[in-house]
Amino acid sequence: xxxxxxxxxxxxxxxxxxxxxxxxxxxxxxxxxxxxxxxxxxxxxxxxxxxxxxxxxxxxxxxxxxxxxxxxxxxxxxxxxxxxxxxxxxxxxxxxxxxxxxxxxxxxxxxxxxxxxxxxxxxxxxxxxxxxxxxxxxxxxxxxxxxxxxxxxxxxxxxxxxxxxx
Length: 166
Hints:
By secondary structure, this protein is an alpha+beta fold. The chain has helices spanning 14-22, 40-48, 80-86, 97-104, 149-156; strands at residues 2-5, 26-30, 56-63, 66-73, 77-78, 92-94, 122-125, 134-140, 143-147, 159-161, 164-165.
């Protein structure tokens, strides 16, 4: 089920509220989340009937002591060394899940790069530019937003870099 959104909806997430406030065109995709599914991102791609190369997961890493957001296709993995390089760091590790949830204001599997509690440095995988639109979490499990990669990059002040691995 896809819904075109132009104005705030009752029960909107901080991500959809941020998109609406920015006046950005986006589409909300809702689906029934299955807690038994092994991958949030792959589940979203399957449920929406969208290629996994167009569905991006939001990961939080620690780069030299600074929490940093990485947005990469669900079809691949994050290259931590490339992420560190993209933000001028030396070493990156995956962030503690509790710290990621506390800092972003979202739960794991529903972390959105948009509308986070604290604005973090963000890197969008360069492969996003190959698509007219991509999907990212809308801020909760079972809810995605589709928008242009350029809009996502602008709204998050993201750097674009090749940080994903197939």
